[in-house]
Amino acid sequence: MTKRGSIVYYLAAWVWGCISMAVLIWCAVPDRERLSWLMGQDSAVAGLLAVCVTALLLGAPAATLFALLLRRAVLWMRWGGALRWVLAGSVLAPLVIAAMGAASHYYFQIGSDTYRILVLTVTVLLAGPGGIYPSGILAAIPVGALTAYVLFLVHRAFNSPQLPAG
Length: 166
Description:
- By secondary structure, this protein is mostly helical.
- It has one domain (6-159).
- Helix content is 73%, strand content 0%.
- Helix 2 crosses helix 3 (82-110) and helix 3 packs across helix 4 (116-132).
- The longest helix is centred in the middle third of the chain and has 33 residues, at 44-76.
C-alpha cells in the first residue's frame, strides 16, 4: 500500500484540500460574524485556525472521495500530464461537493431518529460538504485544481520508473 504512495497521496488530499478550502472560504467571507461561532476570541488568527481545524475534521470524507475518484479517473483515461490532472480536479471537486452536499441537505430534510448511530455516521460524513453547499460550490473549482496538482506531484513521485542501482 505504501509502495505506490497511497498513504501520502490521501494524506496530501486531506490536508491540502481541506486547509486550502478553509483559507479560501475564510478570505471570501466578507462578514466575519457568520464565522463567529468558531472564534472563541476576536483574534483573526484564532478564527482562521478554528476554521482550518473544523475543515480538517469535517472535510476528510469529501477529500478522500475526491482523491480516490481523481486517481481512478485519470488512470482510467491514461492522462499523464499535470494540466490534465488540474482540469480533472477542477471539474471533479465541485461534483463531489455538490453530490455530498445535496445528499446532506436531503438527508437532514427527511430526518430520522430511528437509528441514532446511522444518524451520527451520516452527519459526520456529510457535514463538511453540506456546510459549504450550495453557496461555496464555486470555491471548489480552484481548490480542486490546486489539490489535483499536488496529488499529481505525489502520484508522479511514487510512480516514476525506478532506475537500476549501479
